[in-house]
TrEMBL record:
It comes from Brachionus plicatilis. Keywords: Signal. InterPro entries: AB_hydrolase_fold, PhoPQ-act_pathogen-rel_PqaA. Residues 1-18 form the signal peptide. This is Autocrine proliferation repressor A-like. It comes from the Eukaryota.
Amino acid sequence: MGVKNLIILIFCLICVHSTPLDDYVNTPDPHYKYELLKSYKMPGFNLYVLNLTSQKWLDETIVSNPIWWHFLSITIPNNLTKPDAGFILIDGGNNRANRIPEPEDDEVKLTSLFALSTGSVAADLRQIPNQPTLFKADPTKTERTEDQVIAWTWKTFIENPEDPSILLRLPMTKAVVRAMDTITEFAKKQSKANVQKFMIAGASKRGWTTWTTAAVDKRVFAAAPIVMDMLSLNQNFHNHFRSLGGWTFAFNSYYVLNITAKVDGYGIFALQQVVDPISYFDRYKDKKIMVVVTSGDEFFLGDDTKTFWTNLISATNGTALLHRVPNAEHSCTGHEISIFLNLQSMFLSVYEKQNLPLVRWKMPNNRTHGIIKAFVDLKSERKPTSVKVYFAKTLDSKRRDFRLIIADPNDPSKTIPHPVVWMTADILRINEETDRINYEAAFLIPFDHWLGFFIQFSFPGLEDSILQVTTETNIVPEYYPFEDCTYDSCYGKLV
């Protein structure tokens, strides 16, 4: 084969693998710019608040705010021991903010703490997505935020799958990529930093953006998508329906636009090809990924991971980690610091090329017991200092429902507490061998409710940190309480 033909072949292979997400992110945008708004000299670090204009998304005939701008708060520690690495918290916020971020803001404090404890540059990137947004084609003329924005873009795409530019995940991802560009350039001017690689993290829809950013940018060496494990959309939609007999109230933005009635349509499968992380698993080979989820998430199921975890382990050469936070809901309120400390431990391990814990498990349930058999491979040179079993029972036999918040049965527009409490159980059987430690947890399968359980491992990390990982959640009995839906019958109800 001649050189010319080889070049053509390589070019074609690249083109075939390119997706609309790649094309959007990689298209130069003349609107990109940034400016320094304010700087703070703090004990041990300097904080710089920038106004970042990341792009123009669509135009004024489609959306009210096509120019996307963000507050980007960059912390550079005085003791910069890792000048080539950075961390980005992908954050929310409002593009009508009436004040710039300050050192005492919660998210800024967390990223500054991260910078100080790791000796790296860390940043809080806000207004992902830019919101509120008004779509000119929306007959309700609603100024949409959060899931309302995403739902409208899904609706529009499902109706016309030939135009993926409407999908909000595209500009959300591009904004993070532009933030990486900005941090590298700006930090180099202010210090000895030369940031060439990043760990990124974000929660919920920012967690989804964490997945997609890791897929499109090779500078991402580690990623922590938080409370976003609803990969394999169509399959998990059906598991959701069979578990709850409808849809969680948290899906209201999608429900009112009739998207739940279209989960089996061509549009959803076309959507998956563009934004579902499972479409990008082949790109996570060299990424270190920790999936952070909660036990009481009102958006997602406790075992969403079963649709993709084995494939993710294979895609990441066995390095992907799972961390389920007990007794937390979707917002992770009260657990922010513990989650960040876990991310700090992961960052240090990956940066220093330390082996991550190698934990494997299976769930060989039988007719009488739900079982998790796990082992820690000692070849990873990581031995846990603490191992716990967490379990919880659903409050009744009606739904396979571990949410901490549910819709009020008398008024689905309101919510009420649903106190599914996770407790520890001293039931673990341990057997240590030369090259591994085996663990087994078993519970009797209940007949009047569902029971979920998982095993949590705490490993010593670098610089006195602790790295916590868990198994997947085993939910027994293994049947679903509701019949599955198909096509229009999936419209359902909110619960």
